[in-house]
Write a structure and sequence with these properties.
Elements (H helix, E strand, L loop, with lengths): L10 E5 L5 E6 H9 L3 E13 L2 E9 L14 H7 L14 E5 L14 E5 H7 L4 H4 L16 H8 L16
Parallel strand pairs: 1-4
Antiparallel strand pairs: 1-2, 3-4, 5-6
Bound molecules: zinc ion.
The site of zinc ion has 8 residues, from strand 6 and helix 3.
């Protein structure tokens, strides 16, 4: 059966001239940028033509560097829960009372950073106690990562959703 053209497939990752991810756009908008000579295609979808002999782009790069103000996403409960989709990273359940868990417990030198904090339900948090996930035999469902700078949080989440495998090589901190 031929692959269906899903809306998510029509998303295009836009890179700055420096190859840093900037945002996600539609292929229509991406095509306009290319026709105007403002962007070049780096990756395209082999299975979909937007016109004869023209494949749909999936990654484009701007020819001119765009200056983006530096914006760090602050490490707080709300943002950690959002990154983890409000799911306990141990049991995978939502709609439970959520808490913040340090993967390597703070009492054992675990730091307050994006790579060491995750969303956990109270039950799992208590069960894990003062142990690492390995010691507690409670594997993490996803590897905690620092959301990218200079992009909206939603864009970062989309990139990390793993729907676009061909984006991975352009994204630092990619978790497949
Ligand atoms: Zn849990």
């Amino acid at each position: 059966m031929p692959l269906k053209w899903h809306a998510c497939m029509s998303q295009v990752l836009v890179l700055n001239a420096s190859y840093e991810p900037l945002n996600i756009t539609s292929w229509r908008r991406a095509t306009v940028l290319m026709l105007k000579g403002k962007a070049e295609t780096l990756e395209e979808d082999e299975n979909h033509n937007i016109r004869q002999h023209v494949k749909a782009p999936t990654v484009i790069r701007l020819r001119q560097f765009i200056r983006v103000p530096y914006r760090d996403i602050s490490l707080n409960r709300k943002n950690i829960f959002q990154r983890d989709n409000n799911l306990c990273q141990y049991c995978g359940q939502k709609n439970k009372k959520l808490s913040i868990d340090h993967v390597l417990p703070r009492s054992r030198g675990g730091k307050d950073n994006w790579e060491n904090v995750i969303t956990a339900c109270l039950q799992c948090n208590v069960m894990k106690g003062n142990r690492t996930p390995e010691e507690a035999n409670m594997p993490l469902r996803t590897k905690p990562y620092k959301p990218l700078n200079n992009m909206s949080f939603e864009t970062t989440k989309q990139i990390h959703s793993g729907r676009h495998k061909e984006w991975s090589k352009y994204v630092i901190g990619w978790v497949a």
